[in-house]
Amino acid sequence: MDYDSDDDRMAAAEQLAEHDPRAAADALRAIARDHSVDDDIRLEAATRLPEIDEAAAADALRAIARDHAVDNDIRMEAAARLPEVDEQAAADALGAIARDHAVDDDIRMEAASRLPGLDPAAAADAFQASARDHRVDDPFRSEAAEQLAGLHPQVSMS
Q: If residue 150 lies in a helix (H) or strand (E), which one and from where to where?
């Protein structure tokens, strides 16, 4: 079926949800994973999925969060929504953002700061990576070192 816009695709998927939730979930996941669709609409499609299909929601949100072509703020928003549907997928996505050198330092730190409750080992890895990374601004490196020390007081930066 041809659509005039991504908004038309979203409207069709939402209407489909009333009649065939499985088909709607497939349509929304397809929109969320489609690299040619605007980032905001991809995220909107993914955020509509949890009420229909949590596994599809986790897949779609994780795909957005790990997509380097997506705006960093939207990647972070997708990752921040993941713990509601899949904690392991959330830890994976947040860890990927926290270790991504192309992401702004503040977003990397936000991602790392959300990790301790999901995966303490991944949090430690992310904080350690930022603390050691000379490309990271000093205030964020210091914060990462402090967070790491708070997770594992016995861990040294050697």
A: helix 138-151
